[in-house]
Amino acid sequence: MTSPTALPLADPALAERVAARLDVVEERLRGAVAYADQLVDDAAHHLANAGGKRLRPLLTLLSAELGDGTRDEVLDAAVVVELTHLASLYHDDVMDSAPLRRGAPAAHEVWGNNVAILVGDLLFARASTTVAHLGPEAVLIQAGTFERLCLGQLHESLGPDADGDPVQHYLQVLADKTASLIATSARLGAMFAGCTPEVVETVAAFGERIGVAFQLADDVLDLTSEGDVSGKTPGTDLREQVPTMPVLLLRERAAATGDPADVALVARLDGDLSDDADLAEVLAALRAHDVVRETRERAVALVGEAIELLAPLPEGPVKDSFVSFADALVDRAA
């Protein structure tokens, strides 16, 4: 049995119910990534076996508690969102050249880029098979989410237009690449639990806000945590020159004020960070900079907006757990 949920829920009875259903989701997830071919099976199980908080299926199950959370379709919806998430990780790690994922070597480090990409495709296919059994509306929602995931990755790769605002561009990337699936996780849970359209839209909007907040908190963690906490090598994004909010805020500040220290730090970020000692120095400088605090404050503000959106929901342990869920996402980066 898994732990009583990766994030705190406000009521022990609710936490026990959700944990029991999360165990069923985990069992179905393992079955969904199983293949007869041993190499494919090993590669497909790689990230599933590495664990993770299962935030998306947890949010699906929690949202379903606003209706009839015992429906079997809710469990399949939770499997769909986690399969989709796992599939996207295989692709993301190839594009970002990330050496670690969840504390283990990334799949492309073990089997190479081609295998990692194709395994990601296979998992997307399995997610599509599962969602097809949930009906045409679920298929359309899944397709729209998949499109946003791809657009987010594409826009991240292309960068903002010459006259675009890099910070706003980045926030849109986060909304598409991360928040879209978190919003869909909540949407499908409430929808298949038989909730009213108003409740479905409320939890989806909540998921959209906390999805962006979650990624901003991750940007902070990439700079401030050790690898055994974040599950990836600290500073990976800096080394690969992947845009993150603290770096974008630093560039904005350096351009606006011309502060010599900020300008010098930007120059180092644009240089070669392949040497571990150079990367460590840049990491230390960024950790001490106000842009890290500002990024954390932006995440906290988004969580506050998300919690305000919950006002129409009935008072009780489910609503309280949504608040706990949201707060815990950004508390990781405190």
TrEMBL record:
One of its GO terms (molecular function) is metal ion binding. One of its GO terms (biological process) is isoprenoid biosynthetic process. InterPro entries: Isoprenoid_synthase_dom_sf, Polyprenyl_synt, Polyprenyl_synt_CS. Coiled coil: none annotated. Its cofactor is Mg(2+). Keywords: Magnesium, Metal-binding, Transferase. Belongs to the FPP/GGPP synthase family. PANTHER family: ALL TRANS-POLYPRENYL-DIPHOSPHATE SYNTHASE PDSS1, GERANYLGERANYL PYROPHOSPHATE SYNTHASE. This is Polyprenyl synthetase family protein. It comes from Cellulomonas triticagri.
